Amino acid sequence: MRAFALVLVLAGTAEADRPSDFVDVAKLVPDAVLDLRYATEHNFTGKQLYPVAHCKLRRAVADKLVAAAKALRAQDRRLLIWDCYRPTSIQKALWKLVPDERYVANPAKGSNHGRGAAIDVGLVDKDGHAVVLPTEFDDFTAAAHRDHALKGERGAEARRLAKAMEDAGFVGMPTEWWHFDAPKASAYPLADDPL
After folding, report:
1. Above 60 in pLDDT, residue 15?
2. Position 4 confidence tier, pLDDT thresholds 50, 70, 90
3. Quick one: DSSP state of residue 53?
4. Which domains does the chain carry?
5. Could you point out which of 14, 42, 55, 126 has its C-alpha 20 to 30 Å from the C-alpha of 48?
6. Sign of the CA dihedral running 122, 42, 111, 141
7. The overall pTM is greater than 0.85
């Protein structure tokens, strides 16, 4: 009977460590500054869309974020997190407001945020204070496009962020300097789990 119980415990442990499981990013990157904009009215919609400020990602994606955070920590920087996993029902609400695939994924195709395989991030200094970033989060102008935002003195911190994220395996989005997808993000299933 004890051997059977041990097998169940070990099987449960293996299940708990699947790369596709959702994990709490705050537990893995405890020094990240969470400013989850859709959990407040301080976003482009002017409405609170998330019931709680909770950042979840797929485990394999979160592991990459841990690596990026470590690299940035060595440069006296911390991650500033604006958005993580986004339930598909909320993606539909965003699409109604901004039906432009350059900035908001069409829910008919699915969002990598809805797969738990994308993250929107900026940087702060080691004490959590603001640094100069190219634009505000969710700036829907050409100034936020990666080919503009990463240039010059104003783009220095965004370049630092991009290097750390890309070295960890993320891929940047051309129209949003703050948005990073996990490689093969579309392989994760869309979800509408609560935050």
Report:
1. no
2. very low
3. -
4. 21-187 (3.30.1380.10)
5. 126
6. negative
7. yes
